[in-house]
Every structure is written in C-alpha cells, then in structure tokens.
Amino acid sequence: MPTFPLPNISLDGRVVIMTGGDRGLGFSMATAMAERGAKVVLASVDAEGCVRAADELNKIAGAGHALAVTTDILDLEKCRNTVRQAVKAFGRCDVLYNNARRLMRGPGLPPQGNSLPFFETDPAIYRQTVEVNVIGTFFMARAAVEHFREVGTGKIINVSTSRRNFSGARNSPYGVTKAAVESETLIWARDMDGTGITVNAVLPGGSADADPNRPKDPDKVLLPVDIMDPLAVWLASEHSDSANGCRYVGKLWDPELDPDAAAEGAREEPVFMEQQAS
Fold this sequence. Notes:
With about 280 residues, the protein is α/β, with parallel strands linked by helices. It has a single domain (about 15-210, about 225-270), classed as NAD(P)-binding Rossmann-like Domain (Rossmann fold). The protein has helices spanning about 25-35, 45-60, 75-90, 125-150, 175-190, 230-235, 260-265, and strands at about 15-20, 40-45, 65-70, 95-100, 155-160, 195-205, 245-250, 265-270. Strands 3-2-1-4-5-6-7-8 form an 8-stranded mixed beta sheet, sandwiched between helices.
C-alpha cells in the first residue's frame, strides 16, 4: 500500500526512462508514474532483474506500460541505445530519471557497507563509485539531451542525497559523488536555460527502506520506499515545466496540499548557491 496518495496528475502520453528502475526507489517511482499513465523504460545493467521488474510493472499498471532495456550507463552508446529503444517502442521520449547509482552497500562490500574513513576505502570501489555516479549520470544525460534538443523539450531529474552526506564522516566516496551530481544538476540547468529542457534534483530526505543489503537496525526508522513517488509524478508532468535547477525533498511533500503547492513546499535551496559578482 502506498504511504502517500499520488497527486491527481495525468501522465498519459509521457515516456519516461528510469535508470536503476528494476528495484528500490527506482521501481517505486516507475510504478507510480505508470499508474498515472506514463510509459516507462526500465534501464538497468541487470538484464534478468530488468525483465522481471518490467513484467511486474506491466501486471500492476497494465500491459504495455513498461519496457526493459539492458543498459550500462558507463557505455555512452548503450545509453544512446536506451533512448532509441524508448522512441522506437513508444514513439517519443520525454523524461529521464538518473536514478542508477553505486550505493554505500551492496555486493563486494563489507557488511557495514562502504561507510568507511576515506583512508580505509578500497581504491577500486572508490573509482567505481565515482565512475558510476558521476560519469554514468553524465553519459545518460548526454544521450537523453541529444534527443531532447532535436525535439525541443525534455526533463532530466537526477536523484541526489541529504546535505549531511556531503560533509559527514565516512561519507566518501558516496557523498563526494552526490555533491558532484548536485553540481551537474545546477550547471546543466543553466546550460539548458531557454531551450525547453529542464534539469532538477530529487532526494528522499533521509535513509529510505529501499536497500535489501542494509543491515536491519531495530532502533532506526527508515523512510518508506515510495517517499519520492508523488514528486516523481509531479516532476514528470507539465506542472514542473517552469522548474529548472531546483532540489526537491520527498519527505517534505504534503499530500494535503494542491500538487503545485506541495511541490513548492518540498523545494529546498540548492546545496551550492551562486555567488553574486562584487
């Protein structure tokens, strides 16, 4: 059962690519958008998991709502292929959610994950995290914006993290990469000003119950996996057309408000504020 009701916004006719859409937060957001009428391309490096997720989503939202495309976001040509497959299957591509990322926990990491002092972090894992979270995000955005510039419209939404992860102990490399994603979001938004293409960031606002590799802690209350779903629907819709270079926090969404007011209430000042010239 959803924690929050989805806003009464139709996404009929919208085509969305969700990287890392085969599990966790990505699958939850993809499901929410499909339930509001969007066609969703689930893009993941896990081919079998991607197909299973698409099959499940088609059972939930109806046949033809989801397409699985195996995608390695560290390969620009495969990113471009994902966009091509979206257009081939659904006739268009409107929105990219850059959700795929190397998390703090997962296969090949110790039980406590990669939350270590930087001098204890495996250099290979550090490099991989930077490549996936920063370069992979760029490659997928680059592939999408090549199409968006042809059609004169499009939305890129980058999944970010809470401010504390940018400076707290044991948050390198993950916090480092997400600080880079915040910077990418703001720079790309300025690059796209006036083009009909927007770039924004969304984040849960705390640790979400979306990671099966997370050790269970009975004393820690996690945010629900669908915490960003209402914002995901709003950001994919025409309601967000004027938003560019913004940062939205899932847990700040108030379902009692009108969707536009709820989104404004969930908007947080960007991490990096532009300095005015003296």
